[in-house]
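FORM 7B: Structural annotation worksheet

SECTION A. Query
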Amino acid sequence: MKKVVFGLEPLSCPSCIKKIEGSLKKMNGVQEAKVLFHSGKVRVQFDDNIIQVDELKKVIVNLGYPVLTQKVS
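SECTION B. Predicted structure
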């Protein structure tokens, strides 16, 4: 398992959290997705044998949230 933290601009509404978390959690290989509302961070735990960081990032960007930073561990 790997973890990635994406940095976004601070989010403006609670529905943003549901939208991002819900979309990521539907993806095969994602174990956990958590949005930290005030800091604009998205933490994702995933199986890198099934899904890659770029695919996770693409989902967030396609929802309309530009990814400013990313850190994989």
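SECTION C. Observations
The first strand starts at residue 2 and ends at 7. The two ends are 9 Å apart (CA to CA).

SECTION D. Sign-off
Analyst initials: ____
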